Amino acid sequence: MPYVAKILIYPIKSLDGVEVKTTKVLSSGAIQYDREFAIVDELNKFVNGKRHAKVHLLRSQYNLEDRTFLLKVSETNCQQVFHLDYERQALEDWLSKFFGFAVKLQQNPVMGFPDDTVSPGPTIISTATLTEVASWFAGISVDEMRRRIRANIEIDGVPAFWEDRLFGEQGDISFRVGNVHLLGINPCQRCVVPTRDSLTGEVYKNFQKVFVTKRQQTLPSWVASSRFNHFFRLSVNTRLSPSSVEKNFKIGDEVEILEK
């Protein structure tokens, strides 16, 4: 039986994640605390890995209960702890100094700041998929691929690309994680971020070309291939099912497809 092996939350969009044992799904479908905050510039545009490779040099650690956040620059002693609610201005000043231009921290505790605002549920991938995709690239470990893909729920006990069963040719696929009912929507479109080293921002030569070629070659025969207008897609976007009553799930919860 497929089961939840990891749950990863990214409290500040584009920064490091934190692994948790249990989590709550909000009424919006988003995981509580995931992408709750986003760094924006004076034009209210995201300061993220898509637009600013320098963000890869930031390391962060979170205490979700205390709402504290340790922020530091890779390979330096420049670090500081902030309270996310009470020291917002100090945090913004620190980040502005690091980036070299003024930034603010926006907050959305209801839905966060997902890339897909229509399907803001947890993104799903399997451990076997991460292992397979990492094998396509010399020098990239499974942990490194995990940091590049940044999915929320990792499923084990299944073969590579099992999560592609969670979307169909027509309509959504209903499935459960523990007792939480979700809808699988579509394979997640990747951006420039996975092409870079997650810790340094260094570009991996021909990453996207290799990825697209291998993804097409390894696409299982049962996959709804019409959902791939291109093959730079990995993991599955979801929504909370309107019928779901339960809103919490945890490590070890079984994952079951309810509607095929």
TrEMBL record:
The protein's name in its UniProt record: MOSC domain-containing protein
Protein species of origin: Fischerella muscicola CCMEE 5323
All copies of domain MOSC, residue ranges: 88-258
InterPro entries assigned to the protein according to its UniProt record, in alphabetical order: MoCF_Sase_C (IPR005302), MOCOS_middle (IPR005303)
Pfam families, per database record: MOSC, MOSC_N
Sample GO molecular function, one term: catalytic activity
Lineage, uppermost ranks: Bacteria, Bacillati, Cyanobacteriota, Cyanophyceae, Nostocales
